[in-house]
Amino acid sequence: MVPREEGGRYGPTVALCQPCHSTVHLMFSNRELARRYSTVEALQAAPELQKYLHWVRRSRVERISNRRRRD
Predict the structure, then answer these.
(1) What is the C-alpha separation between 7 and 40, in angstroms, rounded?
(2) Is the entire prediction scored with pTM above 0.85?
(3) Which of 5-9, 22-26, 39-43 bottoms out in mean pLDDT, i.e. has the lowest?
(4) Which of 24, 62, 66, 56 is closest to 13 using CA atoms?
(5) What average pLDDT does the segment 25-44 reach?
(6) What gap in Å lies between CA 48 and CA 50, rounded to an integer?
């Protein structure tokens, strides 16, 4: 799971819902994702995501919206 920008064009991918995908990219740069969080297990263990993961596990999927702001 390496972002395309960091050379991961043909590597493994993981399907994420849009809100989770947006949150991951809000919290981490592509370089950081490639170097530190290139597996699902590493990403799930990231201290920065723990509060979000705790919240999303308790939420109903239908009610999670993409709150990413476009400037």
Answers:
(1) 18
(2) no
(3) 5-9
(4) 24
(5) 90
(6) 6
